Amino acid sequence: MTTSDASHLALYRQMVLIRRFEEEAARAYSQGKIGGFLHLYIGQEPVAVGAVAALQPDDYVITTYRDHGLALARGMTPRAAMAELFGKVTGCSKGLGGSMHFFDVEHHMLGGYGIVGGHIPIAAGTAFASKYRGEKRVTLCFFGEGAVSIGDFHEGMSLAALWKLPIVFICENNEYSMGTPLSRELSVEDVSTKALGYGMARDRFFADHVLTVQEHVAEAVERARAHSEPTLVEIRTYRFRGHSMSDPGKYRTADELEERKKRDAVLRSQTELSAAGFGAELDAVDKEVEDLVQDAVRFADESPEPGPELLETTTYKGAFAR
Amino acid sequence: MSVMRYREAVRAAMTEEMERDDRVYLIGEEVGHYQGAYKVTEGMLDKFGEKRVIDTPITESGFTGISIGAAMVGLRPIVEYMTWNFSAVAFDQILNNAAKLRQMSGGQVHVPIVFRAPNGSAKQVGSQHSHSMEHFYAHVPGLKVVAPAFPADAKGLLKTAIRDDDPVLFMESETLYGIKGEVSDDPELMVPFGVANVVREGTDVTIVSWSRMVHVSLEAAAALENEGISAEVIDVRSLRPLDEETIVRSVQKTHRAVVAYEGWPYGGVGAEIVDRIQRLAFDELDAPVLRVTTLDYPMPYNARLEAFVIPQSPRVVTAAKSVLYR
């Protein structure tokens, strides 16, 4: 196996892990084991996996509430992720954050955020800190095309360009802001053109292949690392499930969904790797991932819940300000 | 000890802390080249350079979010708003990010940041520029709110704020920037949060206050003295955490209390203080606790109407006499 095949297989494994994780999360949700909102990443796996593959281990990543995929791609264990969904103290955020607020500081995954666009200035801030300290560290900031209309997108982009911050803004354009199609959210079809007004570099492509994502994002990461210049990268993708578990998806047709599933990057990698003669390796990946995900569910099930003693210490450091 | 103005005390605290710790930077509109909209930051750009004294475009939400992000990964920003009114467009960043990150990350990250600006009424600046924003922010667990009335406290509390590991909202006042007071030169002298200061001792009635209204309350106490009434004035200094012990101890002595502050009467920090007094000192009270607040209207521009709406010392005097049934 060549290095590039091994790398492709490793990325395929990440994508399959995310997909199987999300499928089991959906099942657990329907069993009432997960509360609140659950936004699945199924269909968008090549975006997080390909983008993270373009990073160094100490680069920062930040995203929206659709955050499971990025966390797993960054190295969060399926146990910590599933336990968080189950609201257990063994979860990545001790069961206090839930689906929308995965944090893993050890892997420089600086969180999933629930207010659309609100994390864009936060991400510019981690990039600002890198530049302030003279580090060669890059920040990747993920958001959907629905975030492009809100004020914090503008302020974050504007300041990142003005101050030449080492950041890559990744717009995961999945064509629907909850149930509203792009044509009813934006006056332009090409989201990447938003960069022009800020004098910012831009890129735009379909996430049909995980390696395409890696290659394109690597260019933008290099621009940030070597020249401290931001880029807006619009990655066109599609979610195969609803906005959240409560979404029946009536705003799009079954035909459209089936058409888009034919472009599934997970399937594409599988087909290519299989054709290249790695059938046995693919089977091994499937089995390993299945074991990991089942183990994560078991672990989450058996883990204890957080107690009220955690509430004070996670609100303030030291004495509670009352 | 040096005698300095309030604005100089704020500047001294920032300067000392920036000299002590290079993770601390100052960011805001007109803080650098313009030397500060209220000259609080005068000379700081020359001293620290553009890397650490950072002028921003008009982007409160943007530079607030950026500084929260920078704080989350280890810097210690001081964010200046031209006035607290403009923090309203950054409210989401303060409420949903600064205040929540520690908890929603399960304690993995924290946000050591100071937000500071003049607060409350100024002079005839109209309804959009006269807000008392402490009431909005003190409601939020995860935030700390302080509002010094004197130069010494401005310096000591700001130093404590900059060294604190949680978000601190520091409320100054345009009307106080010019007042003078003795201020310690000791770079390690800090004023702790949650400790009120009895600024005038008395035996008949307790007046609880903060920021500009401490000075108004002292005026009222002087007027009351002329009528044979001995008023104790408490400057709480810190609104969250709040020093309820000092307030209760005073009420145990006077058995009567008035809370005098800027801000509307519906809810707010003053109502919280009244709640604590009635809960913790119910049997000590000889009269209901009264509040003297900004009247329940948006702030009018007209000078006479503005003076009518803002709490003035005669209203504090009237309230004090009322709780004394005089």
Q: What is the name of the CATH class of the largest domain in chain B? A: Alpha Beta
Note the gap between the termini of chain A: 62 Å
By CATH, the architecture of chain A is named 3-Layer(aba) Sandwich
Q: Mean pLDDT of chain B, as a whole number?
A: 98
| Most strands sheet of chain B | 7 strands, mixed
Order of strands side by side in the largest beta sheet of chain B? Answer: 3-2-4-5-7-6-12
Q: Could you name the CATH class of chain A?
A: Alpha Beta
- Could you say what the CATH architecture of the largest domain in chain B is? 3-Layer(aba) Sandwich
Identify the overall geometry of chain B. Answer: globular
Number of domains of chain B: 2
Could you tell me which chain pair has the largest interface and how many residues each side has? Answer: A-B, 51 and 46 residues
Structural class of chain B: alpha/beta
Protein topology:
The complex is a heterodimer of chains A (322) and B (326).
Chain A: H1 3-30, H2 45-52, E1 60-64, H3 68-74, H4 78-85, E2 109-113, H5 119-132, E3 139-144, H6 151-162, E4 167-173, E5 176-177, E6 180-181, E7 201-206, H7 210-227, E8 231-236, H8 254-261, H9 265-275, H10 279-302, H11 309-313
Parallel strand pairs in A: 1-2, 1-3, 3-4, 4-8, 7-8
Antiparallel strand pairs in A: 5-6
Helix pairs in contact in A: 1-2, 1-3, 1-9, 1-10, 2-3, 2-7, 4-10, 5-6
Chain B: E1 2-5, H1 6-20, E2 24-28, H2 44-48, E3 53-55, H3 60-72, E4 76-80, H4 91-98, H5 101-104, E5 114-118, H6 134-137, E6 144-146, H7 151-163, E7 168-172, E8 180-183, E9 197-200, E10 205-209, H8 212-226, E11 231-235, E12 238-240, H9 244-254, E13 257-260, H10 268-280, E14 290-292, H11 303-309, H12 313-323
Parallel strand pairs in B: 2-3, 2-4, 4-5, 5-7, 6-7, 10-11, 10-13, 13-14
Antiparallel strand pairs in B: 1-8, 6-12, 9-11
